[in-house]
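>> received
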Amino acid sequence: MTHHTAHRLALATTDRLTIYKHFGQADEFQIVDIDAEGGYTFIESRKVVPACSRGEHSEDGFDAVLDLLSDCEALIVGKIGPGAAEYVTTRGIRVFQGAGTVEKILSTLISKKMLDKA
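>> returned
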């Protein structure tokens, strides 16, 4: 049976176990593909320059990160400010916020079909 990728996500985690990073402070994202059967596979790790430094952020900082994640349909982050979340969504990338284990968060997104909703 061939597994087709249904969704590609960027997770704000460095250890592949826990999602806790704030979007603006994340220096690495784990890229995960979710298949049509609800399984997931880690594809790669992508290093980024954090979008925020010393409490300040800019659209240029956001763009640099989002350009590296442009093939992802959603970000899963521990926290994100409302302005940043709005900006990310204008780039066509959905945002899910919640700290916890990767396994629990992905299971919830998959079982509640949250990725299938527009």
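>> The first strand starts at residue 5 and ends at 11.
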